[in-house]
Amino acid sequence: MRISSDSNIFWHHGFFKLNLTMVTTWALILVMVAGSRMVTSKLTTGVKIPRWQNLLEIIVVSIRQQLSDTGLKKPAKYLPFIGTLFLFIAFSNLCTILPGYTAPTGSLSTTAALAIAVFVAVPIYGISERGLIGYLKEFLHPNILMLPLNIISELSRTLALAVRLFGNIMSGAMIVAILLMIAPLFFPDLIIALGLLTGMVQAYIFGILATVYIAAATQADGE
Amino acid sequence: MDNTGTVAVVSIMTAGFTMAIGSLAPAFGEARAISEAMSSIAEQPDAAPTITRTLFVGLAMIESVAIYCFVISMILIFANPFWNHIVAK
């Protein structure tokens, strides 16, 4: 039984392997970019706006509202990054309803890449907001003896982000596969429905945790 | 029992125990978190959205401990490096 779609290789040349995870990711990116481009090519302001534009506006405004609710000042600056994280994970988990589709977030490679993106983004945003010295001084809070623990917590929460998303999505797919062997007709459907719910929740959790980490790195002292 | 048998028995038993013990503590933790969240929503219904959002974030963090145990038992059953090594010999 294969754990993820990483082993389904289409083409390889030396070190580089083109597997099903990458092809699915590219297909998702293509659908999202092409869809958004088609909707935003005819933007109108006014009372009656087209339906798809309305949908995208709801999504963007809700994400920005959530960012400022979680304590992030200037949400517009972080909206592209965190919005992309949330939308990519949510869309790729939502598409599990399509037959024959394996979610790319069910592969540790994809979730590790997303977690590394957050790991790199936190210092970048922290330094751009508070300067290098101000960001590094945060590691000495509350006490200089906490420095190794703060560094370890940076690494471990990145690992936790990756494994949390991977474990949730992979376990949903695996339970469906096992149930198909045991009780084929109705129970896999229930588990797929539960998998949709947990997929959405995990996308939200990933976004909120990224927001909290960036907010902790960018808040100025005394706020 | 030869080496192959030993690896198989230990892997299977460890996978079972990992999942069994590793799902107890997160369940208790989540139960406490939810009950405290319920009583604070009952005390202050206006803060319900904030409490609910924080509750879900906390539940996800607790859940990830159970997910780690699940990943370990899946690795032991399906992608066991010791088993692949022993069978290849």
3D structure, described in words:
The complex is a heterodimer of chains A (223) and B (89). With 223 residues, chain A is mainly α. Chain A is built from six helices and two strands; from the N terminus they run E-E-H-H-H-H-H-H. Chain A has helices at 20-40, 51-69, 75-94, 108-137, 147-182, 187-218, and strands spanning 9-13, 16-19. In chain A, strands 1-2 form a two-stranded antiparallel ribbon. In chain A, helix 2 crosses helix 3 (75-94), helix 3 packs antiparallel against helix 6 and helix 4 (108-137) runs parallel beside helix 6. Chain B has one domain: F1FO ATP Synthase (Up-down Bundle), CATH 1.20.20.10. In chain B, helix 1 (3-22) runs antiparallel to helix 3, helix 1 (3-22) runs antiparallel to helix 4 (81-88) and helix 2 packs antiparallel against helix 3 (48-78). The longest helix of chain B is centred in the C-terminal third of the chain and has 31 residues, at 48-78. Chain B is rod-shaped. Classes of the chains: A mainly alpha (223), B mainly alpha (89). Chain A binds chain B through residues 1, 3, 69-70, 160, 163-164, 166-168, 170-171, 174, 201-202, 204-205, 208-209, 212, and chain B through 50, 53, 56-57, 60-61, 63-64, 67-68, 70-71, 74, 78-79.
Helical residue percent band of chain A: over 70%
* CATH domain fold name of chain B: F1FO ATP Synthase
Q: What number is the mean pLDDT of chain A? A: 89
Any idea of the CATH class of chain B? Mainly Alpha
Strand residue content of chain B = under 5%
Oligomer: heterodimer
Arithmetic mean of pLDDT of chain B:
90
**Tally of discrete structural domains of chain B:** 1
The number of helices of chain B is 4
Shape of chain B: rod-shaped
CA radius of gyration of chain A is 20 Å
Coarse shape of chain A: globular
The domain tally of chain A reads 1
DSSP strand tally of chain B: 0
Named CATH architecture of chain B:
Up-down Bundle
Strand content of chain A: under 5%
